[in-house]
UniProtKB/TrEMBL annotation, chain A:
<feature type="signal peptide">
    <location>
        <begin position="1"/>
        <end position="22"/>
    </location>
</feature>
<dbReference type="Pfam" id="PF11231">
    <property type="entry name" value="DUF3034"/>
</dbReference>
<dbReference type="InterPro" id="IPR021393">
    <property type="entry name" value="DUF3034"/>
</dbReference>
<keyword id="KW-0732">Signal</keyword>
<protein>
    <submittedName>
        <fullName>DUF3034 family protein</fullName>
    </submittedName>
</protein>
UniProtKB/TrEMBL annotation, chain B:
<keyword id="KW-0408">Iron</keyword>
<keyword id="KW-0813">Transport</keyword>
<feature type="binding site" description="distal binding residue">
    <location>
        <position position="108"/>
    </location>
    <ligand>
        <name>heme</name>
    </ligand>
</feature>
<dbReference type="GO" id="GO:0020037">
    <property type="term" value="F:heme binding"/>
</dbReference>
<dbReference type="GO" id="GO:0019825">
    <property type="term" value="F:oxygen binding"/>
</dbReference>
<keyword id="KW-0479">Metal-binding</keyword>
<dbReference type="InterPro" id="IPR012292">
    <property type="entry name" value="Globin/Proto"/>
</dbReference>
<dbReference type="InterPro" id="IPR001486">
    <property type="entry name" value="Hemoglobin_trunc"/>
</dbReference>
<keyword id="KW-0349">Heme</keyword>
């Protein structure tokens, strides 16, 4: 079974290293489809733009699961590619790594950086479920609540400083509440993020206008249409720290489809607004995820 | 006095044909573990008595044959399970039945059920409801009633 993507090889490696089969008590797999969300752009389990309180991977509190994703976001003038993997431990802790590659295409040439110049970023995430069970607590309004942090390191420090960015790395902190209202077939999420990130961190952290943390909001609402299909929308506010370019809020409208128990596809229309002075960055958000 | 009366009432309960006797317990609709729906729309969505019979039979057949949870049903009183499940579903869907079975805690206490087993069972129920043509939103409203029973069913 030669894996087509190196990512799948990584996944297989993770699966083998997983101690889920170590104890007799632990049996592999077991979450209901889509109840581990999909991989957000920063690698944490969530919607596309928003991080959710759900723990990634297909395991319950009796095991260790994981997920891997590739995401491609072609925009009007740029494109973003991200890939990464996450481990979900006992449905309690999620650890994730994602690499984002932001390609400037022709804009890179216009800015004198060179055509196809890329801004890359590594994101290391950790999430802890504090309370609640988004799926089964249907007799209470209490959502599933998680807290977490994402350490981000952007690779273009020199350029980031040249355009007024203060740092090339930073850490976001978030509190996330996710609720599945089964009686209404709805999935709702609200997340507050303390961040200094410019364009998710690709343009660094803090800047000539502001260099302090601000509270930003990201939220999702989705309707479960079938056991395997959810459609919804998301919105996410972002700081506006850089003097040279205004930064806008982002939103999307998405459909997430569970192709099999272990593979899901997300397709969205996304609007990231103005990026580095180039307005109207709208396009598609396409993500393939596998979880176990 | 009350426990004695309840015990008497329970021991006086005839064992339906094909079923095995169970330890005496207090009968009550509250044992069903959920408040019933108001109105008739859910009962209609599940195609009433005949629909609930087909759904429960299809659901139990899937559970018994299931590679993951089938083992848990081995040697259990499946005749009784079908009957009490039909009563429970009918009661919750406001189909006018009384529930004569045990509480969820009592019925599942010795089974060692994990969350994963519960999730498998939910999928089997979803398949059985879909086979009956129950609209997806109605399926979810019903599952929302069953979901909180997890804390009584999942013991480890
Ligand atoms: C919300 C979920 C569930 C509901 C509504 C439910 C309902 C019931 C009912 C009504 C009974 C019969 C009670 C009686 O005999 O008085 C029963 C028994 C039983 N259930 Fe469940 N159940 C659920 C979850 C599960 C799960 C997850 C499993 C295993 C995977 C399971 C396995 C069994 C077995 C084996 C029996 C027979 C026990 C015996 O006869 O001693 N149930 N259940």
């Amino acid at each position: 079974m030669p894996p087509r993507l190196p990512l799948l090889a990584l996944l297989a490696g993770l699966a083998l290293a997983t101690p889920a089969q170590a104890g007799q008590e632990m049996r592999a797999g077991g979450k209901l489809v889509l109840t581990d969300g999909v991989s957000s752009v920063e690698g944490a389990a969530g919607g596309g733009l928003a991080t959710w309180a759900l723990i990634g991977g297909n395991e319950t509190r009796d095991g260790i699961g994981g997920s891997a994703h590739v995401t491609y976001v072609p925009l009007a003038d740029y494109s973003l590619t991200s890939y990464g993997a996450a481990i979900g431990i006992m449905d309690r802790v999620e650890l994730s790594y994602t690499r984002q590659v932001f390609d400037t295409h022709e804009v890179g040439a216009a800015l004198g950086l060179g055509k196809g110049f890329t801004f890359d970023q590594d994101v290391l995430g950790a999430k802890l479920r504090l309370l609640g069970d988004a799926v089964y607590d249907q007799d209470s309004w209490l959502p599933q609540v998680s807290v977490g942090a994402q350490y981000k390191h952007a690779n273009r420090g020199t350029i980031i400083h040249a355009v007024g960015g203060a740092h090339d790395s930073g850490t976001d902190f978030f509190v996330s509440a996710t609720k599945i209202l089964l009686g209404q077939s709805l999935v709702l999420d609200g997340t507050v993020r303390a961040t200094k990130a410019n364009q998710f961190g690709l343009l660094g952290f803090g800047g000539d206008r502001h260099d302090s943390y601000s509270a930003q909001f990201e939220g999702s609402a989705a309707v479960l249409l079938t056991r395997k299909l959810a459609v919804g929308g998301e919105a996410r506010t972002k700081p506006d720290n850089l003097g040279f370019a205004r930064e806008d809020a982002a939103w999307d409208a998405f459909a997430a489809y569970a192709v099999t128990k272990n593979v899901s596809l997300t397709a969205a229309y996304v609007d990231l607004g103005s990026i580095a002075t180039v307005k109207g960055q709208r396009g598609a958000f396409l993500s393939l995820q596998t979880s176990f | 006095m009350l426990p004695v009366l309840l015990a008497l009432a329970a021991s006086a309960m005839p064992v339906p044909p094909g079923e095995q006797p169970v330890d005496p317990y207090a009968q009550s609709d509250a044992n069903a573990g959920a408040m019933r729906f108001q109105g008739q729309s859910m009962w209609h969505a599940f195609h009433e008595q005949a629909g609930v019979q087909r759904i429960v039979d299809g659901f139990v057949d899937r559970d018994i044959a299931d590679p993951v949870i089938g083992e848990i049903f081995k040697g259990q009183d499946i005749v009784r399970l079908r009957r009490t499940l039909k009563e429970q579903f009918c009661y919750i869907l406001n189909g006018g039945c009384a529930y004569s079975g045990r509480t969820m805690k009592e019925a599942h206490k010795n089974l060692g059920i994990q969350i994963k087993d519960m999730n498998v069972l939910v999928v089997n129920l979803q398949k059985a409801m879909a086979a009956e043509g129950v609209p997806f939103f109605a399926q979810n409203r019903f599952l929302a009633k069953l979901a909180p029973m997890k804390k009584d069913v999942v013991v480890r």
